[in-house]
Amino acid sequence: LQLLDSIETDAGKKQLLTKAHDNADKLARLISELLDVSKIQSGQLVLNVQPFKLEELLLETTNAMQLVFPSHQIINQVTGTDFEIRADQPRVEQVLINLLSNAVKYSAPGSRVLVDLHSSDTEYTVSVQDFGTGISDTEKESIFDRFYRAKDVSSNVTGFGLGLYICKNIIDRHQGKIWAEPQTDGTIFYFSLPKNFVEGSC
User: If you classify domain 49-194 with CATH, what class do you get?
Assistant: First the structure.
């Protein structure tokens, strides 16, 4: 589809190819999410735990997402270095990408998305803040349920209601926590990960 799109010059056909490409992306994303849900439900979500620096992952991911979403200002506010952690790096990245994608999806073009990282004696806490439509206090627990979608969501916002459910299970498998805090404008999502996670201890 991408090759056809690059060589097609007719505007109408090009628009159809773009739509087909978008639909193919949505289908691939749905299949990937359903596979993850299947692994979660069967207890087969296996973690590949390795040491890495969490601040480097946040920087790389926010930079990459800024390229994907030039319509928004994705701002990495992390200061400091050597935030060493043991975790499944691709799975933590998956959580971060989902939260950043949602922040963009539910906020207006030109809005800021703020990413930060804090450290305590026993854990790291990552925050992703948007200034969009937000969620209600009554929904902040339900949004992590499978197939749940926020009530005040525009019909133009696509999704399957699986992303946050998968995120919660990934964080739970790391013995961490994930939660949302509604703000006057938008929402802050947090997830925490233990510094000394031991694979197989959960």
Answer: alpha beta
